[in-house]
Amino acid sequence: MKPTPKGWPRFSQAVYYRDAGAAIDWLASTFGFEVRLRIEGENGRIAHSQLTYGEGLVMVGSSGRHDDGKEAWQASQKSPVELGGANTQSLCVFVDS
Fold first, then answer.
1. Across 60-65, average pLDDT
2. Contact present, 31 and 93 (Cβ < 8 Å)
């Protein structure tokens, strides 16, 4: 097994939202996530982001990428809303109250 990259936790999660920018802002203001990286593409679309909370890391991106030349998994990222409300991720984060 390769060593964990420097600055990354052993486990990380990726979640997708129709409006990833608003989700990032909400996660930061509501729960105290810190934005480590935020890459915006065309029309403010979130191409990639990294949010940290303590030692945890969550990547948040916009759903429904349609970039030419991307691998199939990157073209099929969907939010729960786009799948009729189905749960597409499971994530447990402990936050201070």
1. 77
2. yes
